[in-house]
Amino acid sequence: MKGLRRVLGRWRWRCSQIQRNESKLGNAKLLLPELSLPSSTPSSPPFIPGTQSPSLHLLHSDLTQIPTLNTAPTPHAHRHTTNMTLSCQSLSSPILIRTTTTTLQHFPFPATIPSNLSATGGRRLLGSYILRARGKELVLGNPSVTVEKGKYSYDVETLIKKLSSLPPGGSVARCLDTFKNKLSLNDFALAFKEFAHRGDWQRSLRLFKYMQRQIWCKPNEHIYTIIIGVLGREGLLDKAYEIFDEMPSHGVPRSVFSFTSIINSYGRNGQFETALELLKRMKKEKVQPSILTYNTVINACARGGYECEGLLSLFAEMRHEGIQPDIVTYNTLLSACAHRSSGDEAEMVFRTMNEGGIVPDITTYSYLVDTFGRLEKLEKVSELLREMEDGGNLPEITSYNVLLEAYVHSEKIKEAMGVFRQMQAAGCVPNAATFTILLNLYGKHGRYDDIRELFLEMKVSNTDLDPSTYNILIEVFGEGGYFKEVVTLFHDMVEENVEPNMETYEGLIFA
């Protein structure tokens, strides 16, 4: 308090000194309260108690009233960064000080600001005016994450922002006090989905646990399904199953949606055996699986290395229960057949697909091409590509590359070039991988003129070149004894900003 009195005494003495100087110059022109000086008046730095006072433009003899600051106690850790919004209330005898918009950044006083002291961010009317400051809300937690404007309603957006700013030890209950009985469960569902999109499972789980303890916002099955999915995506299977298992004890019945969510959680984490057990439990509890449930289980088993026989057994099971497979079901099965090189099973699935009236898409044909390409059934692959072109489905470049690679493996130059011209005629632009396959084919047969012509075609077509393309060229010309061309290719590689790798340098060494 002694230091505070010393500061106030120094401030009063300085004001009286300025008052005496001003009185010698004559009567000062009184200005109305709340008026600031003209814009031409230079601004001064904010007044900090304990430093030299800024010059006053208008004084009045009444200095008995000291401006006061009205604010809530500020936490000790943040007392130096408190922002204040000032308002003035007229009493009598104004003292006008130059106004600035500078925010107070340093306030070397105790955590609780004394009531008989005023501090201003931008200086306004002092003396017989009382200054009231409202502490600005501190943004804690993760304020850098913003919500897309207009994506949600005002209440939902505010809820997300408040929860995002909540520190780890903050109170969710206090944060949601203002929303009590204002938000619906659909509003909470939107907040959960926003945090799921960010991968913020901690806030999602804290909000969910808070809702479980409330009456006005008790979670329904939709909320349970979302939080199970959020935890499953993060690999927190124990937490996900715990929430799934406690649903009946909270009066929330489990339906196809919550079962599918927990099955997907285990499936995406490679635990297809647990996914199959949950499917059996689902049927035991008289919950009818949907097409989404079966697609989830089949995909989990396919990714987990389940044999084709087991996948086809699940496929037959769903059809037996009256659930019609869709394009996702068939493509999942065909993908599994491609990875297992199961040509007979792929043909059976494709035939069933056509019989069921499901129109194949580019993905379907890509998996078939991949399957028969691995089995080197090149005629079947060519037939599929023509079927795609005739049906208006332009094959992807990867499909043509599969056939090209198969012909290269069989060292069939004529057929490979036929596929290359076929893809160009169909309007499919070759990529670097396409040219690399053909360059490798020509290199094996020592057709250097064809290699030069093909490389020139690459340059003219502005194909994005990669290190593997240059590595094959360097290797081929090096083995043929064309050292000058090897050096030229390396310089061209540098000019094209293609970064050499270890294979490039090995090719240069052995050239």
UniProtKB/TrEMBL annotation:
Keywords (A to Z) from UniProt: Repeat
Matching Gene3D superfamilies: Tetratricopeptide repeat domain (1.25.40.10)
Pfam families: PPR_1 (PF12854), PPR_2 (PF13041), PPR_3 (PF13812)
PPR repeats: 220-254, 255-289, 290-325, 326-360, 361-395, 396-430, 431-465, 466-500
Keyword Repeat among UniProt keywords: yes
PROSITE patterns: PPR
Repeat in keyword set: yes
Domain of life: Eukaryota
InterPro entries: PPR_rpt (IPR002885), TPR-like_helical_dom_sf (IPR011990)
Family indicated by similarity: Belongs to the PPR family. P subfamily.
Protein name: Pentatricopeptide repeat-containing protein
Species, as recorded: Ilex paraguariensis (yerba mate)
